[in-house]
Specification:
The chain is of the alpha+beta class. It has one domain: Anthranilate synthase (4-Layer Sandwich). It has six helices and 18 strands. Strand 12 and strand 13 form a beta hairpin. The two termini are about 35 Å apart.
Length: about 350
């Protein structure tokens, strides 16, 4: 919606008064408060805002968000194609080419011309609270995103950097399989390796491994990886080492990316990329992995949403399809107007 002003909303922070926009990651080492959006394919948008204030996410206003009908969503990969992709990845694993790879699909539905992603964020905040929820609205730059991400990509405090990869999903803790724990450990090794490229030798640690975290309607296995950046490493080096996030690619990352490119039929865009903020003045930052994320494609007149699953040798094709359905169901329902009055406490 081009008539709406640029805005960034992350948790209890709101940024307005757009100053400048760049694709140069070194700007994040300069001054000011930046909102950041990185597409999975590598497009980076950094937007510096003049005014930053604390403000809670507003309550949703009935009728403010005009979402698509529940039956209007279509998938870039149907059930047969997705499960065939799972089997193909298992063949790559059997051949020793990869240990794990994420297979994702993009869901699309018609978008109302006056739809505002910030109004969608208000709905998501009520119906699907998430630690890294937010809005990034830069219509002139083709970025309109509403996220309910539960996953930390990168947090910085001075030279300290932290990542919180998620691998393993179930409706309850009892649903988690040995495969989920193995998958998490594999991705933790990958993230340790990524951060090790830019962190001082011996500083990369894993203070939490496979912790069970509850979210609305499901549980995740979450680990934490810490490190201390080398003095010669800034944002360009950190992003080059860590992006795209390991939890949504696979291991080894390069092999997984080749497989993803061959099997997926639609670009992921903001989904599985990164979204968040960098306060260059205070040397702090919080970037989320762009999952549980909606974005607009104004040229096509579509609202898009991504969902996927990590595939290992232990994967069951139909089970992985059901995991993508589980991850999407609640969010799609909210975007289509369902569950506005849901009591979310029942899911925690």
């Amino acid at each position: 919606m081009s008539g709406l002003p640029p805005l960034a909303r992350f948790g209890g922070l709101v940024a307005t008064g757009l100053l400048d926009v760049t694709c140069d990651p070194s700007a994040l080492d300069s001054t000011g408060f930046w909102a950041v959006s990185a597409d999975f394919e590598g497009r980076l948008v950094c937007a510096r805002f003049r005014d930053v204030r604390k403000e809670p996410v507003p309550a949703p206003v009935p009728g403010q968000w005009q979402g698509p009908a529940a039956g209007d969503w279509t998938s870039s990969l149907d059930h047969a194609t997705y499960t065939a992709g799972v089997r193909r990845i298992r063949a790559h694993i059997a051949a020793g080419e990869v240990y794990q790879a994420n297979l994702c699909r993009i869901l699309s539905a018609p978008l109302a011309p006056d739809a505002d992603v910030d109004a969608l964020t208000a709905l998501l905040a009520r119906g699907n609270p998430a630690p890294y929820a937010g809005t990034l609205r830069l219509p002139a730059h083709g970025v309109e995103t509403a996220t309910a991400s539960p996953e930390l990509f990168l947090r910085r405090d001075g030279r300290t950097v932290e990542s919180g990869p998620i691998k393993g999903t179930g409706r309850t803790e009892a649903d988690l399989l040995d495969k989920d724990y193995a998958e998490n450990v594999m991705i933790v090794d990958l993230v340790r390796n990524d951060l090790g490229k830019v962190c001082a030798t011996g500083t990369v640690t894993v203070p939490d491994l496979c912790a069970v975290e509850k979210h609305p309607g499901l549980v995740h296995l979450v680990s934490t990886v810490h490190g201390e950046l080398r003095e010669d490493a800034g944002w360009p080096e950190l992003l080059a080492a860590a992006f795209p996030p390991g939890s949504v690619t696979g291991a080894p990352k390069t092999s997984a990316l080749h497989i993803i490119n061959a099997l997926e039929t639609a670009p992921r865009g903001p989904y599985c990329g990164a979204i968040g903020w960098v306060d260059a003045d205070h040397h702090t930052a919080e970037l989320a992995v762009g999952i549980r994320t909606f974005w607009t494609d104004r040229q096509a007149g579509m609202l898009r949403f991504g969902t996927g699953a990590g595939i290992t040798w232990g994967s069951d094709p139909d089970g992985e399809w059901r995991e993508t359905e589980l991850k999407a169901a609640r969010l799609l329902g909210l975007a289509s107007g369902a569950d506005l009055n849901a009591n979310t406490h029942d899911d925690h």
